[in-house]
Amino acid sequence: MRASSARHIAFVAFGVALLLAGSWWGLAKAPGEVFMGDVQRIMYVHVPTAWNAMLALTFAFVCALCFLFTNAWKWDNRLEAGMEMGVVLSLLLCMQGSIWAKPTWGVWWDWDPRLTTTAVMVFAFGGILALRAFVDDPVKRAVWSSVACIVAFVDVPIVYFSVKWWNSLHQAQSTPQTVSSAFHLPLRINAFGILFLWVGLVGLRARVAALRRRGEMAPPLTQKQSATGRAPITGGAV
Amino acid sequence: MNALFAAFRKDLLLQWRGRTQMVAIFAFGAAALLLFSFAIGPDSSALREHAAGFLWLGLLLASTLSLAESFECEMEEQALEGLLLLPASTRALYYGKAIANWAQLALLGMALVPVMVVLYDAGTLRLFSLLVVILLGTAGLSAPGTLYAAMTSQTRARQTLLPLLLFPLVVPVLLAAVKATSLVILGDPMEQYRPWITLLGAFAVIHWSIGGLLFGRVVED
Amino acid sequence: MSGVIEGGWEFVIAAYTVSALLLGGYATSVFLRFKKEKARAPDEVSG
Q1: Which has more pLDDT, B21 or B55?
Q2: What is the pLDDT of residues B17-28, one digit of tens each?
Q3: Which residue of A has its CA nearest to C17?
Q4: By residue range, what is the domain housing residue B28?
Q5: In chain A, what residues touch B210 (CB-CB under 8 Å)?
């Protein structure tokens, strides 16, 4: 099994390398955009983060479905890892979006439907991670977080539409987050960079979850092990 | 169907027996509405403009108490296991409880309307339209709320987890219900009421469906 | 949107720095937890 963790670490390293290359290209080589100026360069890391955040949460959703159908622990490990990664990426997306909004719109938050939906997702999936922390029974924890993940994921499009509509009645703004074709290369490199990074991290994180559960479900100490002085778990005399 | 009706009757009976608690929850909701007006200040026009928002925020906060309470009795004496041993599908149990919770929340919403009218000078003659919003909005709260209350009532930190899980999920209900209520109170010159109601209805349909499908897994042993 | 946004490099740097810190910090946290769990149970077979 060392082979699989080596692969995960390799993915992470490769992802970081791609991100460094893509970011260098976007920051140093690509020309500034006509209207947005250099602020547009935030897009080279913002758009890839958006794609990957959605991908990670979709992955978590699929793991939740797989767990409910198969009851295999590996899907719960991946669910935990996928949700945590998805929350981190979504949080990052909100922070990037805020940094983008200030020079662009003059405010730290402009209620853009995509970003607002992402903020709701941070709370929704973060809440499920909190739920996991308060459930001691591993089976219940796995079933409930799968159920909650499915409900939250199904809710995402509804949240998006309701916010989009709610916002459109107030401002008829068009958010220029499309990137013209001249700038696609750094975008693609960074997108794959984050992809490899999060796939590798999810692999490692799922292993952490598996190892933790093994520790949790370990049988009580035997008589021999408890000869160190700890009280024997079986009530009999030592 | 019989099982559903029996479950519904049981939950309704439990609510009736615990009606003093219902009064307390109403008092909590009314107190919240009062506090909101203190937060804004004695600016009548501002209060009137945001009355719909305050009503639904107050109702949402009160709903966490009411939903959590709906599973309290199931936790005593292992009543939940007893229910599951009965020859009734978990689906019937879910819908029975969800409908009872819906009724309680709708009643709570309607009871808070006069409070809103008085505190924020937010009266309206379009009572039927207002009733529709309350019914659909509370339906949207009840379905996921019952599902999550079933989970969180079995955990530690149950009082924190239920709102933490429920609030992000019901953002569409809050948005749509506040908008629709606002249109009823302040006027609707561009006929936007119907689309918001449709959104509330769609949300309710989706969550009542998946709630019924998933409840069985939540309460299984 | 018309008009040109002058400068703004500090925002660009802020965005990239935040991204690097958050992703790097999370990756470090995962690595550390992985090391800790492996040290606790080194002979476990992965599930």
Answers
A1: B55
A2: 888 889 999 999
A3: A96
A4: 2-219
A5: 150-151, 154
Does residue B214 contact residue A150 with C-beta atoms inside 8 Å? yes
Q: Do A215 and C41 touch (CB under 8 A)?
A: yes
- Helix/strand/coil (H, E, C) string of B91-160? HHHHHHHHHHHHHHHHHHHHHHHHHHHHHHCCCCCCHHHHHHHHHHHHHHHHHHHHHHHHHHCCCCCHHH
Q: Which residues contact A97 (CB under 8 A, 6 or more apart)?
A: A46, A112, A115, A118
Within 8 A by CB and 6+ apart from B4, the residues are B91, B92, B95, B96
| Shortest distance, CA B207 to any CA of chain A (angstroms) | 8
CA distance B21 to B29: 12
Identity (one letter) of the amino acid at A216?
E
Chains near A with 3+ CB pairs less than 8 A apart are: B, C
Contact B181, B55 (CB under 8 A): yes
ipTM associated with this complex: 0.91
Cβ <8 Å between B155 and A134: yes
**What secondary structure letter does DSSP report for B207?**
H
pLDDT at residue B100 in the model: 94
C24: nearest CA partner in chain A? A16
Tokens of B208: 């009542």
Q: Three-class SS of residue B188?
A: coil
pLDDT, tens only, B170-212 = 999 999 999 999 999 998 888 889 999 999 999 999 999 999 9
Burial of A169 (0-12, 13-18, 19+ CB in 10 A): exposed
Q: Into how many domains does chain B fold? A: 1
Q: Using an 8 Å Cβ cutoff, are B6 and B96 in contact?
A: yes
Contact between chain B and chain A (3 or more Cβ pairs less than 8 Å apart): yes
Kindly list the domain boundaries of chain A, sorted by start residue: 10-30+39-169+183-214
Contacts 24+ apart (CB under 8 A), A217-221: A217/A138
| Residue of A211, A212, A213 to mutate for C, most C C-beta atoms under 10 A | A211
Chain A nearest C-alpha distance from B97 (Å): 18
List pLDDT tens digits, range B81-119: 777 777 778 899 999 999 999 999 999 999 999 999 999
Distance, CA of A54 to CA of A154 (rounded, Å): 13
Counting one residue from A and one from C, how many pairs have CB atoms under 8 Å apart? 102
Model confidence, pTM: 0.89
Q: How far apart (Å, rounded) are the C-alpha atoms in residues B66 and B48?
A: 27
